[in-house]
Amino acid sequence: MSQPNEARSSVKPDPVVLARMFSAPRALMFKAWSSADHMRRWFCPEQFSVPHATVEFRAGGRCEICMRAPDGQEFWSKGQYIEVTPPERLVFSTSVVDADGQPRFTAMTTVTFEDHGAATRMTVHQAYEIFDPAAMAAISGAPEGWRTTLDRLGQEVARIAATPAQVFHALTDPVAKARWFGGGAGYTMLERSIDVRPGGRERAVGRWTSGTVSAFDAIYLDTVTDRRLVYAYEMHLDGRKISASLATVELFPSGAGTRLKVTEQGAFLDGYDDAGSRQHGNGTGALLDRLDESLHG
User: Fold this and answer.
1) CA dist 135 to 132, 142, 144, Å?
2) Whose CA is closest to 251, among 192, 201, 291?
3) Domains contained in the chain, CATH given
4) CA 46-51-52 angle, 5° bins
5) 175-196, pLDDT tens digit by residue?
6) DSSP 112-129
7) CB distance 161 to 168 below 8 Å
8) Which H/E stretch holds residue 92?
């Protein structure tokens, strides 16, 4: 990052602090900050746009945003993420630079997310260091700029929120479920079918790059549209039955989105040990992450 000219003296105005309640769970609020695609849709004041953004959402990753004014003038802020602690806290530092690449001012932004039932209280604290006195005009307009920016954030959260009906569709529709239910990288689906009516069956067979073939065979025991699925399933590796499980998936409205609860009881058979991969690894946790991406991406 370029250093300011020695002739410039730094000034630290009072920080801007804003808090707002959103009718969405904080995991969803946090997600709206997590990618360039999301940030381009909302991270700018009213009447501005974001034509370019680089978001490397990890501590030390780049945070670069270009805001375009209605007259076409572009304002770049470039910096990095200091802390990314989902879904509780986000800290990043950016500098707004002039045509010579010299910082006009820097901003240290801290965002916290607090649960309030099904809602989230989000607080933005932004502290400034001024290197170009002419930048003070921009800082003085920051509270109003943040107000309209957070209005746009609310719109983006509403856009990416998934209702129970949408989640249920992703769990039960053959085309929608094919977008997320599989082994991910290194996995090729060979066979897939699904019927979630009570007594209906689901089968998914795929081959890993190692050549191992895995098979998921389920029978649905209870189905309540947009609310609940209960099913029993077996897993096979190369024809060998390795486990038998009972799973319940429940959907609850939560603010603008949905809280999904998965309860599973399983038995590993004949000495098979998955070393925790059923819950983590390429198991249930990874599948739920891909489900979330298919709904909110």
Assistant:
1) 6, 11, 16
2) 291
3) 16-161 (3.30.530.20), 165-296 (3.30.530.20)
4) 125
5) 999 999 987 788 999 999 999 9
6) EEEEETTEEEEEEEEEEE
7) no
8) strand 89-97
86 burial via Cβ count (<10 Å: 0-12, 13-18, 19+): middle
Cβ contact 63:92 at 8 Å: yes
Q: Is the pLDDT of residue 34 over 60?
A: yes
pLDDT, tens digit, 9 for 90 and up, residues 141-183 = 899 999 999 999 999 998 888 889 999 999 999 999 999 998 7
Cβ atoms 88, 122 nearer than 8 A: no
Give me the residue label for tokens 């607090």: 114
Edge-to-edge strands of the sheet including 119-130?
Answer: 16-22, 119-130, 103-116, 89-97, 74-85, 62-68, 49-55
pTM (predicted TM-score)? 0.66
Distance, in Å, from the CA atom of 205 to the CA atom of 34, rounded to the nearest integer, reads: 33
pLDDT tens, residue by residue, 213-257: 999 999 999 999 999 999 999 999 999 999 999 999 999 987 777
- Alpha-carbon distance 12 to 17, whole Å? 15
CA distance 133 to 239: 72
- Dig out the tokens for 269 from the structure: 């058979």
Q: Cα(193)–Cα(174) distance, rounded to whole angstroms?
A: 7
Which residue type sits at 178? A
For residue 82, which phi and psi values (nearest 5 degrees)? -95, -40
151 vs 46, 65, 180, CA distance in Å?
9, 18, 31
d(CA 162, CA 101): 42
CB atoms within 10 A of CB 51: 11
d(CA 149, CA 155): 10
